[in-house]
Amino acid sequence: MTELLIRNGTVYTPSGPRVADVLVYDGVIMRVDAGLTAGSDATVVDAEDMYVLPGAIDVHVHSRDPGFPEKEDFGTLTAAAAAGGVTTVIDMPNTVPAVDSAGVLEAKAALARSKAQVDFGLWGLVRSTTTEEQLAGLADAGAVGFKAYLGYAFSQSRKQVQYSPGAGDPDLEPPPDYGTLARLAPALAGLGLPLAIHAEDPSVLLAFSRPLLGYQDLLDSRPPHAEAVAIAAASVIAHEAGFHLHVAHLSSATGLSAVEDAQRTGTILTAETCPQFLFLSEQDFERLGPAMKMLPPIRTPVDRAALVDGLKRGTISIVGTDHAPHTNEEKGRPFEDAMSGTPGVQALYLSSLEMASRLGDVWQAVQWVSERPAALVGLQESKGAIAAGYDADIAIVDPKVKTTVSAADMRSRQRHGALEGQEFGFAIKDVFVRGERVQHTGRARGRQVRPARRGEQIAQFGGALVP
Ligand SMILES: [Zn+2]
Asked: How far apart are CA 390 and CA 54, in angstroms?
């Protein structure tokens, strides 16, 4: 039996922060209390003046594995995650082959287990051709939920996923439309798993498509109402059928209004935004260049302020990174051809703590990156809290030491990112994955996480997540 005692830290517990010790046996938290003692073989960590926080769960990462090893793989993704206090990553299904069936998901999970340094979960893909049987198979294989890319077409043979409703390429499969969501809605409700959407309406994108000569063209080609229209339409379907809809990477004030409208009518709707939308605006393009090219785009200061406010008020309950690495060559091309996306998983916790402290309640960050993500993907009984019986996924954070995001410190295969140079008033001091200290030996210790079977939990779940 291995024993770990973390002493005298300011522990974020489900009832709030307090100074306490945390005692861990064999990777599971046994007690959280003052004055705990441990055996002579125990690892003892002094956390005085430190925050002892539940590890983050990044519900939106792209491992690129299998399919794009030059960009990233599960080993490098999870090394970056571990360095940033992210002890569980939930990987998106647009790897190759796309995760659209139980067999593909199981093979991907086996691959991830052979490399992952933190725990991982997998989203399943909804394509235009997806059947109810495929959804049920994905759920049985452990999918935490499903992802529909409403504004994207798939190209398996060219090994990429990209926007192209107007491209007319026979190799490209059109995105799932609202009819697909309506057709699958009863199955989604029956399975009790969330449907995450990339919320951009393809007809709006098509109408505003243009050559991307500069950053303004990117903004003009992806107007905020493309996001809002997709959220509104999908919400109507989710509301009628009673399934849980999750909006990935919310990027605009207009999209936020659509989220609020749907939540007001009782739709089970959660929204996630990303650190890059909270810290950056179009004004940073001159400094960052194509490093900040992503879809949906980083928009105006007004959008940024609205998203920060939505997070503060709880309309947006989750921060995920949309960690989406590309090679230096792919990001370094002229703007029009530069690939869209940025790495970011390593900065999730520190950037969220920084934002929460600026908003006056640093502990809100724990809700955004750990508690609420755990509930979204059905892990609320094993992760996302420091309490007896929970996995000992723990980040120890020093609130007196600053961290500046720097390519030199990144553990992702891609050492660049849109948050380069941002300064956060916190530092990751120590990270434990199920009680085991992260030491960057590369050891594969990650396990696949599966949602607790829900159904009856949906009501409680909606209540906990919808303000
Ligand atoms: Zn993404």
From this structure: 10
Residues 122, 66: Cα–Cα separation, whole Å: 13
List, in order, residues 6 or more apart from 72 with CB less than 8 Å away.
62, 63, 64, 65, 325, 343, 412, 413, 414
- CA pair distance 290, 438, nearest whole angstrom: 33
Collapsing DSSP to helix, strand or coil, 273 comes out as: strand
Q: Which residues surround ligand 1, an ion (CB under 5 A)?
A: 322
Count the neighbouring beta carbons within 10 Å of the beta carbon of residue 314: 15
- CA 154 to centroid of ligand 1, rounded, Å: 14
- Whether residue 296 has a cis bond before it, omega within 30° of 0: yes
Q: How far is the CA of 61 from the centre of ligand 1 (A)?
A: 6
Which among 294, 393, 387, 312 has a CA at the least distance from the CA of 352? 312
Spatial CB neighbours of 287, under 8 Å, sequence gap ≥ 6: none
Output the CA 189–ligand 1 centroid distance in Å. 23
Ligand 1 midpoint to CA 201 (Å): 16
Tokens of 161: 């996923």
pLDDT, tens digit, 9 for 90 and up, residues 396-409: 999 999 999 999 99
Taking the model in full, what pTM does it have? 0.95
- Beta carbons of 344 and 275 less than 8 angstroms apart: yes
pLDDT tens per residue across span 77-133: 999 999 999 999 999 999 989 999 999 999 999 999 999 999 999 999 999 999 999
User: Cα of 307 to ligand 1 centre, how many Å?
Assistant: 18
CA distance 93 to 261: 29
**CA 248 to ligand 1 center in whole angstroms:** 8
